[in-house]
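cache lookup: miss for this entity combination. No prior model stored, computing from scratch. Input as submitted by user K.M.:
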Amino acid sequence: MNKEILYILLPDFAGHEMVYLAEAVASDEYALKENPKYVSKFVAPTLTPVKSIGGFRLLPDYSFDTMPDDYAALVLVGGFGWTTPIADKVASIVKHAIEKGKIVGAICNAASFMAKHGFLNNIKHTGNGIEQLSIWGRENYTNSNGYVNAQAVSDASIVTANGSATLEFAKELLLLLKNDTPERIEMYYQFNKQGFCDLFK
Amino acid sequence: MNKEILYILLPDFAGHEMVYLAEAVASDEYALKENPKYVSKFVAPTLTPVKSIGGFRLLPDYSFDTMPDDYAALVLVGGFGWTTPIADKVASIVKHAIEKGKIVGAICNAASFMAKHGFLNNIKHTGNGIEQLSIWGRENYTNSNGYVNAQAVSDASIVTANGSATLEFAKELLLLLKNDTPERIEMYYQFNKQGFCDLFK
């Protein structure tokens, strides 16, 4: 089994949309896991540093040209890059992933990108609202009936979410990946969603 | 006025604890700000890439040796590095910041680090629980009466928070920084805390 989870990052990516998943994969509460089930790897158009919306520069592990053909999951991280021409290079990567039955995640503008390329037409899904999906998707988006008004939706190994749903997005992907027991995944979610003080008051 | 917000990152830093603050500083909902009030800069022990808990490698803007002497705020990002010897190099940086009346933020293990060095003794504060602060702080932590059981606490320009409180931590720092109106800061907080679907249902 391939252990790598690949995160697709474009310039001006939304860092908050990947951190909870990546941390749950790599660590327990107080330390890095000694034998993590998965390893997160970060993919950008080239190997030069890619800047997040928040301004930090991330050094990619792979470029679009050097990323492996096999992996455990493909995660499209949202941000402002999905309206730029470089995003179109991701379409064939996603097509390949879906054809192979890989776990695919797409959050925020990356979910709208999925609509634009017709990848949401056979599954229940969500995103940054039905209006944004329709605007981005135009004639390629034919499944407004499959839109669900939820923070995150998991169907047929594809998880979609809106940009405020990073914790729900992480939870659904962690469940698909069987990263941990459902109970422990739920606890991780609630701990971060409600917060330490409210969870244990 | 100096515009730079400096984030102190040690190896195995917790990426989720910095992203919301950095994104609110740099962007509005749909685009990067044209004239942001502040700019986030990321500081690590050296200029070589520093790895987050989640596994991404961040290219620092400054090292401890090259960071500027003046800045708008100093933010200590939590993670597993605060128990290692390199953390002690941060003590003089924090001492300097507090003496100059700078805005200082410390979240998760970085709040415990503040206790260890006696920086919480004159302020109301919180952190990863009173027990952890007492264990890390030993005889240098003499202000358990000042501990508040809240997600984040802001007092005398110092904001402390527990590791599940990244949104509350960001909110209190954004208020101190007057990054935006209190109403807009609250909206940013609620949008991400409750989530798009629950906020507008």
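stored under new cache key. The helical segments of chain A are 19-26, 90-99, 109-116, 130-137, 166-177, 182-194, 196-199.
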